[in-house]
Amino acid sequence: MTIAVPAPSALDAAPVSGPVTDRAGARAFVDTYIVPYAEAYDQAGYIPEELLDQMAEAGLWAPFLPEEVGGAGMDLVTLGEVHEEVGRGCSSVRSLLTVHTMVSWAVQRWGSAAQREKWTPALAKGEVLGAFCLSEPGAGSDTSGITTTAVQSGTGWVLNGGKKWITGGQRADLYLVFARTASSIGAFLVPRESPGVEVRPIDDMLGTRASMLAEVTFDEVALGADALLGPSGFTAGMVLTGTLDLGRYSVAAGSVGIIQACLEASAAYTAAREVGGSVLRDLPLIQAKLSDMVTDARAARLLLAEAGRLKDAGEASTIMATWVAKYFASTAAARHASEAVQIHGANGCSPDYPVARFYRDAKVMEIIEGSNEIQRITIAGQAAREVTL
Amino acid sequence: MSNTAEAQILAFVRSRYPQAEIAGDQDIFSLGFVNSLFAMELVMFVEKTFEVTIPNEELRIDNFRTAGSMAELVGRLSEELAA
Questions:
Q1: What is the ipTM of this complex?
Q2: Which of A61, A159, A173, A343 has its CA 20 to 30 A from that of A353?
Q3: Does any domain span residue A1?
Q4: What tens digit of pLDDT does each residue of B3-13 get?
Q5: Residues of A with CB under 8 A from a CB of B
Q6: pLDDT tens, residue by residue, A44-67
Q7: Which residues of A touch B59 (CB under 8 A)?
Q8: Which residues contact A105 (CB under 8 A, 6 or more apart)?
């Protein structure tokens, strides 16, 4: 790993006062422990351990897990608000939170009693960090291209293959790996220390540069029978579908956070910067950009909240609602991050202002957890089915 | 319970695929539109509507092949819950 500069953290700040239970608490945490250091994380290309620990102290890693395993039983509407606030501060941190959320949820939802007992308390506390291993060098959104294999051997499995673009892969302790089995695609829980697991950092990405991406390879990795998570056969795809759905929800939340961050940075800059004797915010073309940011932030937030409400209610329609929220929020984030850079002019292209980082991070939101193209195909397909001609 | 469940499940499937003509004993997999997304929606619908949790070992294709077989699964899980 190439470290350009050491990433500072809020070691001199007041200790974490208690668990984050709502948006206001998340905002305060993010403003204290993340926002002042996000540029440094981005330049260093990693998140310091101190912040990971502070997030654990704040109960941020998996607060939606039940209280009996160490979570807080947080509803998903509130979880979305918390992830939005983290995304407002730093998309790299939010990315780590997203993949950990996906793994934690998958174990809770699909795990056997033994698997839940083994992993969920540590996942809830952030003592074990999870990473989601789906993409491969030749297969991203197209899961039919997965070549990693899991072959039954005795009572267990043998895993072979390679995963790429794994968010948090450099730091994670537990990988949720999707691999081709004899009958379908299975999900496997693979501890990082398993013999045959190799982790290679991926540096210098366009955006979410501190999300500690890695390429993770599996060479004859022997796993026990208890490594398989969830059902096998035709429903095995549901583990992937359900897990990606929650990841998409978190990315949508993070995208709302980016729009909000663009708005706040642009509002502050245009209030102070003068041109031709007027402050920028008095110029109609600037006002148009700011008004669009305000409107899209609110619209995206409402779509997110609706998807979250449907999740809390257990409604099947949450899956499509989440697709729509993620599509809208990620494209709006990319659009407004571009406008935020435009508003800041040359300053916006420099590391002196956060909008260049927002711009790079926002582009990533249009690609991860289902590219925009896949999203449009899925949304249009649903519309075509539901509309009776 | 079973007939009511079957009717509700059929209504859900038809709401997702209005153009398809589906009967309670028809194999929905033969219609070619079942993918993992729809399977997930089906499971969520069944669990929410009938207040049951479908354990991993019951997530077998035969339990989801027809509205009737899904209704039988619901009936079985409801009985276990009541026992």
A1: 0.83
A2: A61
A3: no
A4: 689 999 999 98
A5: 110, 112, 230-231, 233-235, 237-238, 240-242, 245, 313-319, 378, 385-389
A6: 999 999 999 999 999 999 999 999
A7: 231, 233, 235, 238
A8: A62, A64, A242, A243, A246
